[in-house]
Amino acid sequence: MMKMLETIKAWFSHKKNASLSIFMAFLVVVTLFATHLQWGNGQRMIEGEVPVYSSNRSDASPLIPIQKGEVYYPIHKEGDWEKILSPSRQIGFMPTTTLAEQTKASKRVAIVSSRTANLRRQPDAKSYLLATAKKGNQFVVLDENKEWIKVRHEKSIAYINAHSVNVRDGKIAKGANSSSIPMKDRKIKITANEAKLYAESHTNSTVIDHVKKGKTFQVVGVLEDFYEVAYNKDLFAFVKKSAAKANFTPIERVNIPKSIKDSTIVIDPGHGGEDPGASSDYTKKHEKDFTLKVSKALAKRLKGLGAHVILTREDDSNLSLRNRAKLANEETADVFISLHFDSSGENNENSGITSYYYNKHDLALSQVINHSLKKINIQNNGDQFGDFMVLRESDCPSVLLEMGYMNNKKDVKRIESKKYQQQLVYRISDGLENYFKNQGKIPQSKTK
Hints:
Blueprint: H1 2-13, H2 18-41, E1 44-45, E2 71-78, E3 81-85, E4 91-95, H3 99-105, E5 108-112, E6 116-120, E7 129-134, E8 138-144, E9 148-153, E10 156-161, E11 165-169, E12 181-182, E13 187-190, E14 194-198, E15 207-212, E16 216-222, E17 226-232, E18 235-240, E19 244-246, E20 264-269, H4 287-304, E21 308-311, H5 321-330, E22 335-342, E23 353-357, H6 360-373, E24 380-385, H7 389-392, E25 398-405, H8 409-416, H9 418-437
Parallel strand pairs: 20-21, 20-22, 22-25, 23-24
Antiparallel strand pairs: 1-2, 2-3, 3-4, 5-8, 5-11, 6-7, 7-12, 8-9, 9-10, 13-16, 13-19, 14-15, 16-17, 17-18, 23-25
């Protein structure tokens, strides 16, 4: 092959048009490469659909599967994988055991136990969302660990969080529904004679457009009373649910889990990356540094109590406010907590902890956690209404905690101390335990 390439190079070297020579050489090489594959190893025809992956790893991204009757070219084997040139001329990897054979050999089935379960391309909560399954849907298990279940999804594979399913021995029951609507196929059709498209998920926000009955939109999110839709390729908008009909069943609010062990909790360390949050004259660190530190410690504590915990960020990176809430919605979280440290106009003007809520279903969560935080020896400013995007756009009960002032000297001394950070972690986690245990009942103050 190398001698052949040298011959081609020499043959074209005398040509005046160098660009044409290079292009012609490229065509010849590609043709020879394809011919070499066909002559050397022999083309093969697929008798049944086979998945193709980007690498020879079990968690690799799936490529376009090879359909029945299509031809591919094997290159060589690598362990339990075969490297191939697919019909779409992509280099990929096929398991030597086909997906159909894996499915047939499987002796385990996953049954969705939560109200919904997200099917993702990779075993990662931030991986591409393929579809959302409903409670009772069943899937063939291909592999499993404590965090993720690898399942057969339609003609390929997907990953479901282990906390969202019950896995048992056996096969999928006859008549069991394993279908789900991919996010890209979720649409609404305007049923009102005229509907307003809002810039945000409330009717006091700017009206972007008025649309007529029959207009359809792709749905990118579902909030309490609104669908979030793709208005155009650059802009999302919100339409009231009462003005449209969906081709899927929106997620409805359900009862609070009876135990923290059955809960999914999203913790949002405020700010991050290029957004430092509040700064201070009393420390070189910024708000973003302390929110991340406390959030990580809280996540560890809650995981130890059996909760399924997701952090919106795990390093010094930034995520938009909308995407923080969107992550909680995609994960069908039971609780969303955004952690912050406050600041005021003048140094040492204000002090203490404040709990913020937006919707009425946030209030109980805010009050239960704030009740627990009162056990810390710092001023407590109680519960207050807060019109924050992360609260407005979150489907689940949500709270934003300001845990001290960055421009109060005494507060900063506490915030920097390991003791105070531990107190915050234990008081918040105790509040969450009581929230689930008492089914969100607002704590009653004892009267003498």
